[in-house]
Amino acid sequence: MSQGRTDDDELFATSIRTWLADNLTGEFAKLRGLGGPGREHEGYDERLAWDRHLAAAGWTCLGWPTEYGGRAATLEQQVIFHEEYARANAPARVSHIGEELLGPTLIAFGTEEQKQRFLPGIKNVTELWCQGYSEPGAGSDLASVSTAARLDGDRWSINGQKVWTSLAHVADWCFVVARTEPGSVRHKGLSYLLVPMKQPGIAVRPIIQLTGTSEFNEVFFDDAHTDADLVVGGIGEGWRIAMGTLTFERGVSTLGQQIGFARELDGIAELAERNGAAQNPLIRAKLTRAAMGLRVMRAHALRTMDSADSSGGAASVAKLFWANWHRGLGELAMEVLGAQSLVADGAVENGGLQELQRLYLFTRADTIYGGSNEIQRNIIAERVLGLPREARP
């Protein structure tokens, strides 16, 4: 990406900045800073209304082609939007799985009928989505999926279990990777199905996290059904389509994520100055290293955002970097809090946790979800460096 903005980019930045200032007022003013990983329960209904307000003003799906309701915004403009949105401390989006993952996947791989059926609901935030990838025996190793789907006339019959399914309890639809070829193994025989969640054959069970909240879920499929034509990319193409979705997952929104990281770091640094922790040279050095790491993270993201890297190497490096950095930030927060970190005396709705305690507990999962550290290192070693494949059973 270019290091300088064009006049059009500056106008775009001013436009979104002004709109956010004018609209994060009144009933929406109280939503600032709410939601996000580990905090999806905060103001959910109000944040859904906010998302629909964004959609009505044309601020959703910016990078989509205009024929599907987007603005065909450039990569620079999409980065500008996410960064300005984060700087405004606007609430976390509830529709991001549909907008940032499934929508681009359908545009890239779906049939025209699928695009016409599903993209408007994503664009207008009238249909919400969840991601049916991980299973009890197939976490980051997606090729071990065992959930099975059998074509029965004009519909698929699905049986199996998914786990760690974010926001499944509020989703209308789920994109499910299932094994559609009996006896197939690993990457072969998988298909990418679009499955309605509101049906008798699906049960959702919340998973209570360390933070006391439950945005993750187990999802059970017991002869659940979906239409025969709701397979993306063709039968047996599930691995290729799923990998395409994961590529979209690490897109421009990560720049906005880093603004949030910077806000967390600033808060920890300010606390260190107030309570005297900054006088400890070790803590001061860690704060400095954290600030340096954040700059490196941004530079890497900008450098690789529009690269032609198809190996997954750049995305894996980025995931390793931010996950370890953020987990370390949670640990640093506890050091800065000192003895106070051991006392749960925060808001009741957060299980009595102080904000930094919640940050620490949830960031323990950063190096696991979205592809564990071990999986990312395998990708880099095998696909980028060409090292021998790890032995597998």
From TrEMBL:
<dbReference type="InterPro" id="IPR037069">
    <property type="entry name" value="AcylCoA_DH/ox_N_sf"/>
</dbReference>
<dbReference type="InterPro" id="IPR009075">
    <property type="entry name" value="AcylCo_DH/oxidase_C"/>
</dbReference>
<keyword id="KW-0274">FAD</keyword>
<keyword id="KW-0285">Flavoprotein</keyword>
<feature type="domain" description="Acyl-CoA dehydrogenase/oxidase N-terminal">
    <location>
        <begin position="6"/>
        <end position="122"/>
    </location>
</feature>
<feature type="domain" description="Acyl-CoA dehydrogenase/oxidase C-terminal">
    <location>
        <begin position="236"/>
        <end position="385"/>
    </location>
</feature>
<dbReference type="InterPro" id="IPR046373">
    <property type="entry name" value="Acyl-CoA_Oxase/DH_mid-dom_sf"/>
</dbReference>
<dbReference type="GO" id="GO:0016627">
    <property type="term" value="F:oxidoreductase activity, acting on the CH-CH group of donors"/>
</dbReference>
<protein>
    <submittedName>
        <fullName>Acyl-CoA dehydrogenase family protein</fullName>
    </submittedName>
</protein>
<comment type="similarity">
    <text>Belongs to the acyl-CoA dehydrogenase family.</text>
</comment>
<dbReference type="GO" id="GO:0050660">
    <property type="term" value="F:flavin adenine dinucleotide binding"/>
</dbReference>
<keyword id="KW-0560">Oxidoreductase</keyword>
<dbReference type="InterPro" id="IPR006091">
    <property type="entry name" value="Acyl-CoA_Oxase/DH_mid-dom"/>
</dbReference>
<dbReference type="Pfam" id="PF02770">
    <property type="entry name" value="Acyl-CoA_dh_M"/>
</dbReference>
<dbReference type="InterPro" id="IPR013786">
    <property type="entry name" value="AcylCoA_DH/ox_N"/>
</dbReference>
<dbReference type="Pfam" id="PF02771">
    <property type="entry name" value="Acyl-CoA_dh_N"/>
</dbReference>
<dbReference type="InterPro" id="IPR009100">
    <property type="entry name" value="AcylCoA_DH/oxidase_NM_dom_sf"/>
</dbReference>
<dbReference type="GO" id="GO:0005886">
    <property type="term" value="C:plasma membrane"/>
</dbReference>
<feature type="domain" description="Acyl-CoA oxidase/dehydrogenase middle">
    <location>
        <begin position="130"/>
        <end position="223"/>
    </location>
</feature>
<dbReference type="InterPro" id="IPR036250">
    <property type="entry name" value="AcylCo_DH-like_C"/>
</dbReference>
<dbReference type="InterPro" id="IPR052161">
    <property type="entry name" value="Mycobact_Acyl-CoA_DH"/>
</dbReference>
<dbReference type="Pfam" id="PF00441">
    <property type="entry name" value="Acyl-CoA_dh_1"/>
</dbReference>
